[in-house]
Amino acid sequence: MSVKIRLKRMGNSKRPIYRIIVIDSRFSGKGRRVDDLGTYNPRRSDQPVINFKKESVLEWIKKGAIPSESVRTLLKNSKV
Predict the structure, then answer these.
(1) Is 25 exposed, middle or buried (0-12, 13-18, 19+ CB in 10 A)?
(2) Exposed / middle / buried, residue 13 (Cβ in 10 Å: 0-12, 13-18, 19+)
(3) Strand pairing partners for 39?
(4) Residue 37's closest CA among 75, 11, 64, 76?
(5) Rounded Cα distance, 77 and 35, in Å
(6) What's the DSSP call for residue 2?
(7) Which helix H or strand E contains 1, and what residues bound it?
């Protein structure tokens, strides 16, 4: 079973908020998720807000979860 860490889009039209989730790669982004790791709000006026559980992210990566390109970029910008 391949597990991925990726973004799930939420919010209203033209006001996106994303959740950082762990999901089985066989399901779509709106399918069953394994774990919620945090949120990402790109619409903040001063700077985007990224909130996530650092320990949980590192634990899932150690278990073999593969972050998507966008999540990998967010983690690098947050110095994880």
Answers:
(1) exposed
(2) exposed
(3) 19, 51
(4) 75
(5) 22
(6) -
(7) none
- Residue pLDDT, tens place only, 25-52: 887 666 677 889 999 998 876 777 888 8
Q: Please report the domains of the chain, with CATH numbers, ordered by start residue.
A: 3-77 (3.30.1320.10)
Phi, psi torsion values for 72, nearest 5 degrees: -60, -40
What would the DSSP string read from start to end of 11-80? EETTEEEEEEEEEETTS-TTS-EEEEEEEEETT-SSS-EEEE-HHHHHHHHHHT-EE-HHHHHHHHHTT-
Q: Which amino acid is at 24?
A: D
Q: Is the pLDDT of residue 6 over 70?
A: yes
